[in-house]
Amino acid sequence: MIPRYQTILFVVLLAVSATMGVFLWQMRYRSYQRLLNSQDSAPTQAPQVAPAQQVTLYVASDADNALLAQPLSLPLPNSPGPRARAILGRLLDLYTVPNSPHPVPGGAAAIAQVFLLPVDDATTASTSTAASKDSRPQLAVVNLTRAFAAAHPSGLETETLTVLSICATLHANLPGVTQVRFLVDGAPRATLAGHADLARTYLAGDAAPTEGLHP
Question: Which of 2, 10, 19, 67 is the most buried if burial means most Cβ atoms within 10 Å?
Fold first, then answer.
């Protein structure tokens, strides 16, 4: 026979356990309700998607040793620097696809930054006196990655086509860009992969053909 005091102790422990269970369930329920309320009160905004815009890429073709215009519709940021980077990134992405007319690895990741700077030399100043500040000639500084330069196929024609396709594409979509310079990992570099000169300033307009360009 179970002693009376053990029966009483068992009943007390059972009641305490039941009370604790109810208390913990209520605490969990309140926490869940607070979580729901905080989610409901948070503002819900649809992600902003840049509108698609028409651009023209000058795509290099090794078979023709030429640049060929290719129109595309792309979502682009409004800021000029990121806009230029997005356009050039799409151009270089075309060179990484199977059966590319100008196979070059790296794609959009090869463009680290694009800086647009005003051109204030004496030559352009005389021709832009009446122009507004926003339409002044600009120098585009294209900062390529070291990995892109290291992996680029070596050869005068293939390197020149890459450089000129970048210059022509910039000028076609940002007509204010009249000059282009190149950096690699933020520093000057003599050549792209041993041949194409990266130490010079390119005239962007000279690289933008009407139908095709043969360097």
Answer: 67
Sheet order of strands, 66-75 included: 52-61, 66-75, 212-213
CB 175 within 8 A of CB 189: no
Alpha-carbon span 94 to 108, nearest angstrom? 9
Please name the helix (run of DSSP H) or strand (run of DSSP E) that holds residue 7, with its range, or none: helix 4-41
Give the 3-state secondary structure of 95-133: CCCCCCCCCCCCHHHHEEEEEEEECCCHHHHHHCCCCCH
| pLDDT digit string, tens, across residues 102-156 | 999 999 999 999 999 999 753 443 333 334 444 689 999 999 999 999 999 999 9
Helix (H) or strand (E) holding 32: helix 4-41
Place of tokens 């028409």: 54
In DSSP terms, which residues pair with 74 in a beta bridge? 53
* Token digits of residue 33: 């309700």
DSSP secondary-structure letter at 203? E
Helix (H, G, I), strand (E, B) or coil at 82: helix
Residue 197: CA count within 13 A, CB half-sphere: 5
**CA dist., res. 201 & res. 30, Å (int):** 67
Give the total residue count for the chain. 215
- Structure tokens, 99: 């059966």
| Distance of alpha carbon 61 from alpha carbon 164, whole angstroms | 12
* CA 165/CA 180 separation, integer angstroms: 12
For residue 95, with 0-12 CB atoms within 10 Å meaning exposed, 13-18 middle and 19 or more buried, which class applies? buried
